[in-house]
Amino acid sequence: MIKLKTVSEIDAMAVAGKAAAHALRAMKSVAAPGMTTMDLEDIARSELQTHNARPALLGYHPRFSKVPYEFATCISVNDEVIHGLPSRQRILREGDVVGLDLVADVDGWLADTAITIVVGKGSPKAQKLLSVTQEALRHGIAKATAGAKMGDISSAVQRLVERNGFGVIRELSGHGVGTEVHEEGIDVPNFGIAGKGLPLQVGMTFCIEPMVTAGAPGIKHRPGDPWAVVTRDGSIGAHFEHTVAITESGARILTALS
Ligand code: MF3
Ligand code: CO
Ligand code: CO
C-alpha cells in the first residue's frame, strides 16, 4: 500500500528536505584533501541540528542489515557507490570521488538526498560521470508527473546514462519516502520501459536516485563490510538523489536548497 501525502504533509517533507540540502552543501563546501570522511559526518550533524532536523539514518535499521546504521550520513569514496561508512581513518585525497547521502527528519517527516563531489580537481572522466549522473536525475524528475508511469522515469534515467557511455546499477533503486526512510509500495528502478509500470498519482513521494559506474555496472560487497556497495571492477561510481512529490503541476523537488 502506498501512502499518498496531502499538500501540508508534502510541505512538511520540504522543510526536512531543505535541511538535508543545506547539510549536503555544507559538506561539499568544506571537503578538501587531508580531511577525513568523519569530519564531513560531523559537519552534517551540526548543520542538521542548526535546521532543527534529526539525522534519520542514525539508528535506522534497514531490512537488508542485521544491525542498525550508526551514522547520520553515508559517505562513499571512489569504487564505493553507496552506503560507505564515515571513518576517522579515511583521509580524503585530491581527485577522490565522494558520494554524500543523508536523510533529514523534521517532526517525523523525512527527506532523502545525495550528491557526489570531487575533492579538489577531478579527472575529466570523473567530471563527466558526475555531470551525466546528475543530468540523468534531472531527466527522471522531468518525467515525474501525474498520469505518467514509473517506467517513464526509469527509461529517461537509463537512456541519458547509456547515451553517454556509462551504465546504471540494476540491483539498486529509488524508493518511497515519507514517515520512514524506505516506504513500501514504490520502487524506482534506474532502467525500464517508457509507458510501463506503476501509474504516478498526485500525493506520491519518492526518491529518484541514479547510481552509475564509469566501468562495468556490476556491484559486490567487500569481505567483512556488510554496508558499502562497491563496483566489481574497481571503477568509480556516482550517485545523485532527490526526494520528489507528484503534484497537480508536476514534480516538486523537496530536497532543494530554497
Ligand atoms: N539514504 C539511503 C538511500 O538513498 C539509505 C541509506 S540506508 C542505510 O536509500 F542503512 F545505509 F543508512
Ligand atoms: Co539517500
Ligand atoms: Co534513497
Structure commentary:
- This protein is α+β, with helices and mostly antiparallel strands.
- It has one domain (7-253): Creatinase/methionine aminopeptidase superfamily (Creatine Amidinohydrolase, Alpha-Beta Complex), CATH 3.90.230.
- It is 28% helix and 26% strand.
- It contains 4 helices and 15 strands.
- It has helices at residues 7-30, 37-50, 124-142, 150-163; strands at residues 54-55, 73-77, 80-82, 97-106, 109-118, 167-168, 174-176, 183-188, 205-208, 211-213, 219-220, 229-231, 237-239, 242-247, 250-253.
- The strands form 5 sheets. Strands 1, 2, 4 and 5 form a 4-stranded antiparallel β-sheet that branches.
- Strand 4 (97-106) and strand 5 (109-118) form a beta hairpin.
- Helix 1 packs across helix 2 and helix 3 (124-142) packs antiparallel against helix 4 (150-163).
- It is globular and about 45 Å long.
- The two termini are 31 Å apart.
- The model has no long low-confidence stretch (mean pLDDT 98).
- One cobalt (II) ion (CO) binds at residues 101, 112, 114, 241.
- The site of one cobalt (II) ion has 6 residues, from strand 7.
